[in-house]
Design a protein that fits this description.
Layout lengths: L1 E9 L12 E10 L4 E5 L6 H9 L6 E6 L2 E2 L7 E4 L11 H11 L4 H14 L15 H13 L5 E5 L7 H17 L3 E5 L3 H7 L2 E6 L4 E7 L11 H15 L13
Parallel strand pairs: 3-8, 3-9, 6-7, 7-8
Antiparallel strand pairs: 1-2, 1-4, 4-5, 9-10
Bound molecules: adenosine-5'-triphosphate.
Adenosine-5'-triphosphate (ATP) binds next to helix 1.
Length: about 260
């Protein structure tokens, strides 16, 4: 589904303006298959968001190619829905209006868009809040609305950059379960960036661990634990411990010392 084919990317900085940029991602080759739930772990600044931005089409590689369904990515697409840590909703539209917006832009008629938006809002647990204004929502509700807005467009892939990390533990766990539930009902490729080894162990089919920039894929670990999983189970806890050991072995200075969840 996603193919990173010898991808390199560097950002211009004031120090190297006009010269060759030092790569953040350096000659990365990686494939993600359809329906796979992939979590990405790595120290701060190693290039996780850069990876996601390449998959989203917000960035273009300096070298190599990023492909989705066999076609080179050359910009954002509703087929690849993105949710960031601080999702922004249109403040002048209600929750329903926010979700309907993308559907209307795709040419769905008003009545149908309304029905589809209400269905997905109900699925993410906001059925009682469709007429609420974004300013009145809690952080968790805003993230739910942002997820609904993306899911309403029925993307083939979800690109999630620490989507629940700003939430309290309870809301975060609820949202993880909502996401898993929706993903199991309609499997799609998920690229999920997190700093939490527990979150990765609970959610992932596969965990990618990146080392410090230039981005180095240090570990590519399939997760074979059956679902449903239980956060406090020995298996999930053991996997989280293994992931933490991988992170602690990385030659970097900004290791997560304490899991945020
Ligand atoms: N637009 C930009 N211009 C210049 N440098 C950038 C830009 N975006 C990111 N960088 C640099 O690229 C490196 C990788 O950033 P990126 O956000 O991809 O890392 P990350 O692994 O997601 O970090 P974190 O876990 O802290 O979110 C960092 O050193 C960052 O300062």
């Amino acid at each position: 589904m996603f193919e990173f084919d010898h991808v390199s990317l560097g950002y211009p900085t004031s120090r190297n303006a006009g010269t060759k940029y030092p790569p953040i991602i350096d000659n990365l080759t990686l494939s993600l298959t359809g329906g796979e739930f992939v979590c990405v772990l790595g120290p701060s600044g190693c290039g996780k968001t850069t990876l996601l931005n390449l998959a989203a089409g917000f960035l273009t590689p300096d070298q190599g190619q990023v492909r989705f369904d066999g076609r080179e990515i050359n910009g954002p697409s509703p087929q690849r829905g993105v949710v960031f840590q601080d999702a922004t909703l249109f403040p002048w539209r209600t929750v329903l209006g926010n979700v309907m917006f993308g559907l209307r832009r795709q040419g769905v008629d008003r009545h149908q868009a309304r029905l589809q938006a209400i269905t997905i809002l109900t699925q993410v647990g906001l059925g009682e809040h469709i007429d609420a204004w974004p300013v009145t929502l809690s952080g968790g509700m805003r993230q739910r609305a942002a997820l609904a807005r993306i899911l309403a467009l029925n993307p083939k892939a979800l690109l999630l950059d620490e989507p629940f990390s700003a939430l309290d533990a309870n809301s975060r766990e609820h949202l993880q379960d909502t996401l898993l539930d929706l993903w199991q009902k309609r499997p799609r490729t998920v690229l999920y960036i997190t700093h939490s080894v527990e979150e990765a162990a609970y959610l992932a089919d596969r965990v990618l661990i990146f080392g410090p920039a230039p981005n180095h894929l240090c570990a590519d670990l399939p997760v074979t634990l059956p679902r449903p999983r239980y956060r406090s189970s020995t298996e999930v806890q053991n996997l989280a411990r293994t992931l933490r050991q991988h992170l602690n072995q990385l030659p970097c200075c900004l290791k997560p010392s304490k899991d945020p969840s």
